[in-house]
């Protein structure tokens, strides 16, 4: 190899290798310090685009899961009110039966009627129950839409039941024909139907919530494979890059020292 002064090819080659090794070292340090495989868009432009979409999907999935959970709570609150109404109707049915007893005096029946009237007022109060300002019940059966998927493509309807219609015919205690007891029994049957519908809707929403949770786990795993750094593999690359930088720096020093041979030839 020729001995030259103006150009030190060995030093230039060593410097270029040192630069590349330094870049690898800095990239490994950036990945390990951030925990991300993609520390800059140039690391994986396509992967970054996919990861951004998956991250957005994860946020929507979390939000949709919260919405479904709130819908379940809405139905559970309505179920509690329906159970209270059922207990009230049970007592009203009992009072209607007791008041039809031929051995009861007019004063006894008046006492029963007083309790019956108060229980009816409690039923009316239940129809006004709300959840976060939203009526649990409506004047007529009304559907509320609940979205079940993060993209809004899947949905179902839950019911605001017309609770007031259940006991519209039992406003006063009927002791003449025993109508109060039979009307209360019919009301209880209608109430049971409402509770069955409420339970069915709650069951479906719970399965939808489970599905969203499973979807979230799978999307998180996919996003992690794209975006998160593999610490074990990256520390291996860091050690390799670190050794290359140190050896490159040493070889560059050696290459620069080799040019001193030209000076000795001039002596």
Task: Walk across the major sheet and give the strand order.
Answer: 1-2
Low-pLDDT segments, ≥5 res:
none
N-C termini distance: 20 Å
* CATH architecture label of the largest domain: Up-down Bundle
CATH class of the largest domain: Mainly Alpha
Specify the number of helices.
6
Mean pLDDT: 85
Query: Strand-and-helix sequence, N→C?
Result: HHHEEEEHHH
Summarize the structure.
This protein is mainly alpha-helical and 267 residues long.
Describe the structure.
The structure is a single chain. The chain is mainly α. It folds into 2 domains: 9-35 and 229-259; 62-226, f41 fragment of flagellin, N-terminal domain. The protein has helices at residues 9-34, 45-99, 106-126, 179-227, 231-258, 260-266; strands spanning 130-131, 134-135, 142-147, 155-160. The strands form 2 sheets. A two-stranded antiparallel sheet has the order 1-2. Strands 3-4 form a two-stranded antiparallel sheet. A hairpin with a 2-residue loop joins strand 1 (130-131) and strand 2 (134-135). The mean pLDDT is 85.
Which helices and strands, and how do they pair?
Layout: H1 9-34, H2 45-99, H3 106-126, E1 130-131, E2 134-135, E3 142-147, E4 155-160, H4 179-227, H5 231-258, H6 260-266
Antiparallel strand pairs: 1-2, 3-4
Helix pairs in contact: 1-5, 2-3, 2-4
Please describe the structure with a list of short key phrases separated by commas or semicolons.
267 residues, 70% helix, two-stranded antiparallel ribbon, 2 domains, single chain, 4 strands
């Amino acid at each position: 190899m020729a001995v030259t002064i103006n150009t030190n090819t060995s030093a230039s080659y060593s410097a270029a290798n040192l630069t590349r090794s330094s870049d690898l070292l800095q990239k490994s340090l950036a990945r390990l310090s951030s925990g991300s495989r993609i520390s800059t868009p140039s690391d994986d432009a396509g992967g970054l685009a996919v990861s951004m979409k998956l991250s957005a999907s994860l946020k929507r999935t979390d939000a949709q899961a919260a919405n479904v959970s709130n819908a379940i709570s809405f139905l559970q609150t309505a179920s509690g009110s329906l159970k209270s109404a059922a207990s009230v109707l049970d007592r009203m049915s009992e009072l209607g039966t007791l008041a039809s007893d031929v051995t009861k005096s007019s004063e006894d029946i008046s006492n029963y009627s007083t309790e019956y009237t108060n229980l009816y007022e409690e039923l009316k109060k239940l129809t006004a129950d709300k959840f976060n300002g939203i009526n649990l019940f409506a004047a007529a059966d009304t559907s509320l839409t609940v979205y079940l998927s993060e993209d809004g493509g899947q949905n179902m309807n839950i019911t605001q039941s017309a609770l007031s219609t259940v006991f519209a015919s039992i406003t006063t205690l009927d002791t003449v024909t025993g109508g109060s007891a039979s009307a209360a029994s019919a009301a209880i049957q209608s109430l049971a139907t409402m509770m069955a519908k409420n339970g069915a809707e709650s069951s479906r929403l719970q399965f939808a919530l489970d599905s969203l949770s499973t979807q979230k786990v799978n999307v998180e795993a996919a996003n992690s494979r794209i975006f998160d750094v593999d610490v074990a593999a990256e520390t291996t690359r860091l050690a390799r890059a670190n050794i290359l930088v140190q050896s490159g720096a040493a070889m560059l020093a050696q290459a620069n020292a080799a040019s001193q041979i030209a000076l000795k030839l001039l002596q």
